[in-house]
Design goal:
The structure is a homotrimer of 280-residue chains. Chain A is mainly β and 280 residues long. Chain A folds into two domains: 2-145, Immunoglobulin-like (Sandwich); 154-278, Cupredoxins -  blue copper proteins (Immunoglobulin-like, Sandwich), CATH 2.60.40. Helix content of chain A is 9%, strand content 45%. Chain A is built from five helices and 21 strands. In chain A, the strands form four sheets. Chain A has a six-stranded mixed sheet with strand order 12-11-14-19-16-17, with no helix packed on it. In chain A, strands 1-5-10-9-7 form a five-stranded mixed sheet, with no helix packed on it. In chain A, a hairpin with an 8-residue loop joins strand 16 (219-223) and strand 17 (232-234). Chain A is globular, with a radius of gyration of 18 Å. The A-B interface holds A 88, 90-96, 98, 100, 117, 128-131, 134, 169, 205-206, 208-209, 223-224, 226-227, 231, 238-243 and B 207-211, 213, 215-218, 232-238, 252-258, 262-268, 277. Bound molecules: copper (II) ion (6 copies), sodium ion (NA) (6 copies) and zinc ion (9 copies).
Chain lengths: 280, 280, 280
């Protein structure tokens, strides 16, 4: 079933795939340019469910856009999705680039603003009904690094999402990074005693919150990624829709360890995975 | 539809309306006296839905009672609602004024206690079923100011509520300050670079939590309003029923910016609004 | 109905019942040994509902296991439940004792690991569907004390649970420590101005979160019990499934005071209780 799980994109690649854009110089200023296209994509969520997803760059979540605080950001957004979409960013920016205006099918627009402040931000389509446009797959992470980079770590992105297969405003399936249970069938390999830096985002609609839980370990929490020092330590953290954090940890012992929301209904319906801790 | 939205009260007035009560001197002590009456009120939630609300002082939320820490508080509560109600306050007080005893229709009672500690507190009817008495509209904010006043700011109150129109223990409509989508049709005017101090309270029953999200900005969080310094900064905060905070921010750029729970189902069913940031 | 409420176990006893295990010396090391047995138990949740519970040591929650940081822990787990179960602990431990492997009916296993780090941890069965095995009653608290004991206090355990009586993935009843409304009919006696240290855990499945609210008072929060100093103060705290904290408070005035999740639907369906504050 690994081939099924890879029909649209590969979650293992997506996990550590950061899009830093293309650097350009204009009028003496550095600009980081990104290209994002909205399309419709058929995604085989499992052996029996094919889902008409709406995607940014043919993947769920969309590309993990990444910049440094103070960079000038330019997103060239093209809508090939068949009807109106947009890209709304979390972060500080003027109203005219807030991404709440529809970009009709076949049109493009440019969102340009300064990347501020550092933290784990996000973007998503903001066309009504937003519940539909988000649960169809139109969301992604936007990481703004602090001026002084964080310490070296094995960095990865985990985005929790929900799928409302039958349009009844409830989710039948859930996933980390697009494919239900992908990281259970294909555990994420990490190394004993190595620092892991998770960028975690909850984009599940209809359920008002989900927790992130890690087995046999605890993580340091950097709320919204907006601090340079952790504020507390735990192994279960509640995240309402659109909340996101940096979570850091390392495993002392080798072996396989699950991670999942501890709302076990959500875990049992696909939002679950495993770390495989290898000896150093 | 502005007239429809104002049939019972005006949310724009309610937003910055603080009830400091009547100051009295008794036995050498200063007393702050408030009058609150429970009644039934027909409220037109939108063009098609008239709702038999239960209200404190003919508004949803009830009056924003406000005092300074250490004041002696006296609430003269009169029940004209047709059946039993009460006023239960959050805060420190003796059991006999905890407001869990029914005040039968046509009767009055007095709740008297010291206002402590400073923070964003609340009150609500505590007659069973509490879900019904709260979702019918019987709740309000109770602000206790610290001994040293907070710095000057444009202060306003936003209370999230839910309406169970068909009595099935789910909400069909939601609102900030009573009327669904009022502040979308009538954006809240604020000024560029001016400090805004939001007193936010979640009184939505049946959904276990809601977030508060602000577009294109971040806010400083004072949890339960019980600190004088913010503890962290974010743009999405999870609030279970009866949670409340002070959130502070200012907008750098002019224009219109949405605010809403990021559980977009709740936003799309009425709990949504806009700030209009005007040049200084 | 006190007799009904005591048909399987006595929640008043369970409240302050800490299982420190049996101390053994092996190869110069101190070991703390616990015995836990999974069985099926008929529990009369109220006068009309008998529930086929699955229990650890014939109680819900299971025994409150308690150790000091650094102790060697040995749990001798015996499964007499009629089908597979397990004990999965939160805390740091190797993969082979993570408790995700089924222990078939009639078999035993031993989970042995170092108790680390200090905090309010927990255990629960991790056999699929976990929602079912948890909501049937297979969970308990695991307290790891810090090297320097916390100050003296009246310590007690409150675990929030939900019962899905009709197997529809929703809860019809809820409880603190097993029996719906037990502590409303039998208030918990405490003393005026005495420090109370609550160990609170939310094990409610299907509802993604619940708050803990205390009437007429505020509590100091020690998140996940992993700090020695409180991080903040409030009277309503949101807890996703498997979240747990230490909450400390004392009552200034005598009398009876309710506590309950402020999602009042959950409170009205059994998760509610009272403190009776007696004069010193
Ligand atoms: Cu869209
Ligand atoms: Cu958003
Ligand atoms: Cu009432
Ligand atoms: Cu309350
Ligand atoms: Cu089990
Ligand atoms: Cu668990
Ligand atoms: Na659905
Ligand atoms: Na777990
Ligand atoms: Na309803
Ligand atoms: Na938004
Ligand atoms: Na049920
Ligand atoms: Na209450
Ligand atoms: Zn669209
Ligand atoms: Zn676990
Ligand atoms: Zn697990
Ligand atoms: Zn009433
Ligand atoms: Zn937003
Ligand atoms: Zn929005
Ligand atoms: Zn089992
Ligand atoms: Zn209360
Ligand atoms: Zn109450």
């Amino acid at each position: 079933d690994a081939s099924t799980a890879n029909n649209l994109f590969n979650p293992m690649h997506l996990l550590r795939d950061f899009d830093y854009g293309t650097l350009k110089q204009e009028n003496g200023r550095t600009i980081r340019e990104f290209k994002v296209t909205a399309t419709n994509s058929l995604i085989e969520l499992n052996n029996v469910v094919s889902f008409n997803a709406w995607t940014f760059n043919n993947r769920i979540p969309g590309p993990t856009l990444r910049a440094k605080q103070g960079d000038r950001i330019r997103i060239i957004f093209e809508n090939k999705g068949g009807h109106s979409h947009s890209m709304h960013f979390h972060g500080i920016h003027p109203a005219n680039v807030d991404g709440v205006r529809p970009v009709t099918n076949g049109k493009s627009t440019i969102y340009e603003f300064d990347a501020e402040p550092y933290g784990v931000q996000l973007y998503h389509c903001h066309i009504e009904p937003v519940t539909r446009h988000i649960s169809k797959g139109l969301y992604g992470m936007f990481i703004i690094d602090p001026p002084q980079p964080r310490p070296p770590a094995d960095e990865m992105v985990l985005v929790m999402g929900g799928y409302d297969i039958n349009d009844d405003d409830r989710n039948e399936l859930y996933a980390f990074n697009g494919y239900p249970e992908y990281y259970s069938r294909n555990p994420i390999r990490i190394y004993q005693n190595q620092l892991v830096r998770l960028y975690v985002l909850n984009m599940i609609e209809f359920d008002v919150a989900a927790t992130f839980h890690l087995h046999a370990n605890f993580f340091q929490v950097y709320p919204t990624g907006m601090t340079l020092k952790p504020t507390h330590e735990t192994d279960v953290i509640t995240m309402g829709t659109a909340q996101r954090h940096i979570l850091e940890f390392s495993y002392k012992y080798t072996g396989k360890y699950m991670f999942h929301p501890h709302q076990d209904f959500i875990a049992e319906h696909g939002c679950i995975g495993e770390f495989e801790v290898l000896p150093q």
